[in-house]
């Protein structure tokens, strides 16, 4: 059995379960792994009972060793594996387990200065910040939390306190985001800090709207991905607070209830109060009910809904219904 591929062993294991349980496990696996395992399942006409017992036995000992290591009992795990398998096989399993367990979530941030982490996360959704700070060193997390705006501090602290175990795919998604931001930061520093998104966005925000449209149109033709990254940073969900009430009401008339409820699921108290204030009493009550009905939601779904609201604001500006003034002297006005 030692020469059997991992995907074939996984296929045998899943065939030992019910279809519903097997499907539940497959949902958390990478697409390439799912394809490899399903190919093996399709090729199997029957599973030899002796082979099935061996696979189940190996899985049991692996899971037990995993638990022992997680509890700090690496020596005990090694001893248990050596009793179950020969020395070479036990050594191979321990090596794989240690390599897997040594990679903790957000490992890349453990050597990053707290001020840099603050700069990386300050524009992120409060739930995203909460997930990150709940996995970094407590001293790091404390320094970052202290550096955030006071209203955001409270929101993030509350989310950390109420947070359960984050889904692996959510952690992976946020890790990818942070790694990309660190990569962008490193590129900016390598070029002497002379450019980058953090430089062009304020420039465009202070550019006349006609000139900005022309620049963005050209960028969309040359580099659509870069244009989208710039656009997402130019006017963000939190900037809605800087619109006056009439502009917010125009935005609310264009958004559907489901999108608004999803966007408000992750809004800070100030934003929630501002939106509710610009709805009728009945509409505000319906929105609160819609938010409660949603239950737990994915961060990316909340952020997508918030982007839709931002897009509506930009559409209103393009149509001349509202004006987002340029320059530091004026805020966003109708």
Description:
- Keywords: Bacterial flagellum, Cell membrane, Cell projection, Chemotaxis, Cilium, Flagellar rotation, Flagellum, Membrane.
- This is Flagellar motor switch protein FliG.
- Mean pLDDT is 77; it is low at 190-194 and 326-334.
- This protein folds into 4 domains: 6-102, no CATH class; 107-191, Orthogonal Bundle (Annexin V, domain 1); 196-234, Single alpha-helices involved in coiled-coils or other helix-helix interfaces; 235-334, Annexin V, domain 1, CATH 1.10.220.
- Helix 7 crosses helix 9.
- 71% of the residues lie in helices and 0% in strands.
- It has 19 helices and no strands.
- With 334 residues, it is an all-alpha fold.
Strands, count: 0
Helix/strand structural class? mainly alpha
Computed CA radius of gyration, to the nearest angstrom: 26 Å
Q: Compute the number of helices.
A: 19
Can you tell me the overall shape?
elongated
What portion of residues belong to β-strands? under 5%
Proportion of helical residues: over 70%
Compute the separation of the termini in Å. 72 Å
The CATH architecture name of the largest domain reads Orthogonal Bundle
User: What is the CATH class designation of the largest domain?
Assistant: Mainly Alpha
Largest sheet report: none
The low-pLDDT segments are 190-194, 326-334
Number of domains: 4
Going by CATH, the homologous superfamily of the largest domain would be Flagellar motor switch protein FliG, alpha-alpha superhelical domain
- Report the CATH topology name of the largest domain: Annexin V, domain 1
Q: H/E element string?
A: HHHHHHHHHHHHHHHHHHH
| Mean pLDDT score | 77
Domain Flagellar motor switch protein FliG N-terminal: 3-106
Subcellular location: Bacterial flagellum basal body; Cell membrane
Keywords: Bacterial flagellum, Cell membrane, Cell projection, Chemotaxis, Cilium, Flagellar rotation, Flagellum, Membrane
Domain Flagellar motor switch protein FliG middle: 115-186
